[in-house]
Amino acid sequence: MTDTVSTAPPHIAPTAPALVTRPGRWIDNWDPEDDVQWETQGRAIARRNLRWSIFAEFLGFVVWQLWSIVVVSLPAAGFSFDTGQIFWLISIPALVGATLRIPYTFMVPRFGGRNWTIVSAALLLIPAVGLGIVVSNPATPFPVMLAIAALAGFGGGNFASSMANITFFYPQREKGWALGLNAAGGNLGASVAQFVVPIVITVGAAATLNLPLAGWVWIPFILLAMFGAYRYMDNLGSAKADVAASLAALKEPHLWILSVLYIGTFGSFIGFAGVFPKLIADQFPDFSTFAVGSASISLAFMGALVGSLARPFGGKLSDRFGGAAITIASFAVMALGALAVIWTLPVGNFWLFLGLFLLLFTASGVGNGSTYRMIPTVFALKAGATDAHRTAGDISSQRKAAAALGIISAIGAYGGFAIPQLLGLSKTTFGEYTTGLGWFVWAYAGMLVITAVVYVFGARRAGTRI
Questions:
Q1: Phi, then psi, of 236 in degrees rounded to 5
Q2: What are φ and ψ of residue 334, in 5° steps?
Q3: Numbers of helices and strands, H then E, in the chain
Q4: CB under 8 A, 24+ apart: contacts of 287-296
């Protein structure tokens, strides 16, 4: 049995079939490109789904980043792991999370955005509980610790399904801002975790650490996200998997080019966010934490915070000026920022170090939003849309773009594994981090050139803008 949602007011002539609801909070006839449907019904529904999508994804990033914070406190809790093992604990959640993003991309078309949000939030309970158990015993073997850290990758997978879901809800002209908000809300979880966990594990702990609380404290919030998704989110009947289109997207060179660019932007954000507490502890141990009463606060959270807040502005600027131009500017700032860190690190000034890294995080956040905004534009252009920056193309094009969003987000997330591993290699091989940072400068310069050649000059020759 179906119910028809109230039709448009009498003075507005509908141009698309009325929205129809089915049991299980399914909605049919969804078309955000139809102005009448969007203004009278669609916008409110999309915003409601976006709010709960942001909250669930936020918790995914919290869980994904927990080990980057916990490892700094492991020695004080009685654990004795070497540098290589520590960097594996930092990077393995990123590796697993990036890999899970590929199947997660196709979960929304298969099960529905609301339904999968409930399931993916429930999966976060496993790594949260597991962390609370294994860090309570300093005799826990490293392989067990590594396995539990790997399960935190569930949190990284959430991003792909969340973004693929939200892209179906919004019209092309507003995708940059909506996807930017959704991603920023999720990215913010990394910052909140890095701010909250040091406080939680030290407040009232006297001379000891309550490391298990780093996992247990998030359980009520995960349960709330499951309830919110169940009660307030919707499944879209039009969000169907186009397997043929998805396979075709894999053959599209632009998917791989955009993936490389996303490694540079999002991979840098999540990679630096994961390793930043460790970098501060190694380079400036006196500034690793600050005592506030009986609690300790780490300033590492500021990096992920500014990067998260910058992301929606990257999408917004791209809506206005084009994603390629903003991405080029982001890579330029990232290259100069990394170079400045290399030049000034011997000075030994923590505040200068912090400021330059915050610049790096801000540029990567803007680049996250702009690169992600380029994806639906590129695929709409390939589908023959006359104004790909403002028009999404047909439903097949939209489904291909949604699949590409998830696949590119997965490949980009491998940067979260590569950056800690490369910095760890730099530290163990050369005894410092500047060599590794130098590798990143060259990478950013190369990605800047790729963006300019393919998506600025190439688009101009085609008489369009990306």
A1: -105, 125
A2: -65, -40
A3: 20, 6
A4: 287/350, 288/72, 289/198, 292/199, 293/203, 294/202, 294/203, 294/204, 294/205, 294/206, 295/198, 295/199, 295/202, 295/203, 296/198, 296/199, 296/202
What is the rounded distance in angstroms from the CA atom of residue 284 to the CA atom of residue 347?
Answer: 12
Q: How far is CA 129 from CA 49, 148, 173, 274, 320, in A?
A: 27, 9, 41, 20, 44
Which residues lie closer than 8 Å to 305 by C-beta, 6 or more apart? 188, 191, 195
Whose structure tokens read 């920023």? 184
What secondary structure does DSSP assign to 290-349, as a single string? EEETTEEE-TTHHHHHHHHHHHHHHHHHHHHH-HHHHHHHHHHHHHHHHHHHHHHGGGT-
CB 57 within 8 A of CB 186: yes
d(CA 95, CA 431): 25
Question: Sign of the C-alpha dihedral, residues 248, 254, 256, 258?
Answer: negative
Average pLDDT rounded to a whole number, residues 325-349? 94
What CA–CA distance (Å, rounded) separates 42 from 40?
6
Question: What is each CA distance from 59 to 103, 125, 195, 265, 306, in whole angstroms?
Answer: 19, 10, 14, 21, 18
Determine the average pLDDT of the residues in 244-270: 86
Domains of the chain in start order, with CATH, are: 3-461 (1.20.1250.20)
Express each pLDDT in 397-453 by its tens digit: 666 776 777 788 788 889 989 999 999 999 989 889 999 999 999 999 999 999 999
Q: List the alpha helices (DSSP H) in 106-239.
A: 107-111, 113-123, 125-134, 142-151, 153-169, 175-202, 213-216, 219-232
CB 348 within 8 A of CB 312: no
Cβ contact 59:145 at 8 Å:
no
SS3 of residue 235 by DSSP: strand
Give, as one character, the DSSP assignment of residue 140. Answer: -
Helix (H) or strand (E) holding 4: strand 3-4
What percentage of the chain reaches a pLDDT higher than 90?
Answer: 45
Say whether 101 sits in a helix, a strand or coil.
helix
459-463 CB contacts, 8 Å cutoff, 24+ apart: 459/324, 462/381
Under the banding of pLDDT at 50, 70 and 90, the label for residue 132 is very high
Burial class (CB in 10 A: 0-12, 13-18, 19+), 286: exposed
What phi, psi does 290 have (nearest 5°)? -120, 130
Query: Between 209 and 421, where is the model more confident?
Result: 421
Q: Which residues contact 148 (CB under 8 A, 6 or more apart)?
A: 127, 130, 131, 133, 134
If you ran DSSP here, which 8-state letter would residue 263 be given? H
pLDDT digits over 28-38, tens only? 888 888 888 88
- Counting every residue written for the chain, the total comes to 466
Cα gap 452→440, rounded to integer Å? 18
Amino acid at 420: P
